[in-house]
Amino acid sequence: MNDKLPSEILDSLKIMGFIKGGEVVDYQGLTGGVASDIWRIDIYPTGGRDCVAEGVVENDQHRTFCIKRALSQLRVEQTWEVSTDRNAYEVRWFQTVAEFFSHEVVPRILAHDEKHGVFAMDFLPPENYPVWKNQLRDGVVDPVTAQQVASTLGQIHQRSALPSLRSELIQQFDTSHLFYQIRIEPYFLAAAKKHPDVRCNIENLANILATTQTALVHGDISPKNILVGENGPIFLDAECAIYGDPAFDIAFLLNHLLLKSVWRPLLLDQLLHCFTVAYEAYLSNVNWEDSSEFEKRACAFLGVFLLARIDGKSPVEYITKEKYKEFVRNIARTILEKKIGTFQEICDLWKQDASYLE
User: Fold this and answer.
1) Taking the model in full, what pTM does it have?
2) Nearest to residue 279, comparing CAs of 158, 154, 142, 137?
3) Looking at the predicted structure, is the pLDDT value of residue 60 above 60?
4) What was the pLDDT predicted at 357?
5) Structural domain of 158
6) Which one of 45, 63, 93, 309 is CB 3.0 to 4.6 Å from 238, fit for a cystine?
7) Where a domain ends, among 93, 123, 153?
């Protein structure tokens, strides 16, 4: 991210009505992953921070929020270009999901400059809303968080799968072009190219994923995109939103819990317990199709994700040793070749082979 706030962001702040006169803008770059720039914005009345501190103006004239801008070229080593119109669908996902719940599960959208692919949302302070990935990194492995994340995800899918909402949501989230660019090609097809022995299997799964329209999918259910609040998880980063296959989301989440145990092998048992708690909580919400058939498909997607996060366009940054990469690849191939169809079987397989990580 650039250290200096780009002039086009200042223009967007004016367009969205945050700057009207002589306000002073402070900013701080935040971690935005590979796909976006994110800033914390503080807007003070004329005179700036000192006027607020000295009581010259009321503190309620100071506003703090986040600005997010989608990037066209993602920050990865390989060429990975994605249309910035995904910014509008991310806003729409937040707004739609907010209507499903009486409590906070997404940040509040404050304004949107759709033309320039920029939106403003609430700033949620890290001391009150820690990032789940940071907690896992630091050894804070709470199964309640895993249960709440998976249960909330299941409720989003269950609600959006209602026949009364289906046609409207399909129209609102007609993002197959984006989902191909940001998920199917860099994950499924890139992994297929690297692993010709399971290429046909992966390509068939990619076709299923591309043609399934069942529920509102987030597309990036990763611990880095989930804040742990007092009242439950807050979901961020819905740039991949689509009305598609919900099996994608739960497989994506469970994949991260497995990979974190390679990153933090001393937490293996705790992370596998979270894996079990999460899939059980999620599956209790599956009523839009036969749950066993759903689970089989999600297990296959999970096998692909394991390969993709090692050999796709967006490999996880924390698995660097070749022997650990091979451990993940071997389990992924086993899942795909033997068509393992339950999450518990995958959990057992992972634990059985985990001595390899010592």
Assistant:
1) 0.91
2) 154
3) no
4) 67
5) 126-357
6) 93
7) 123
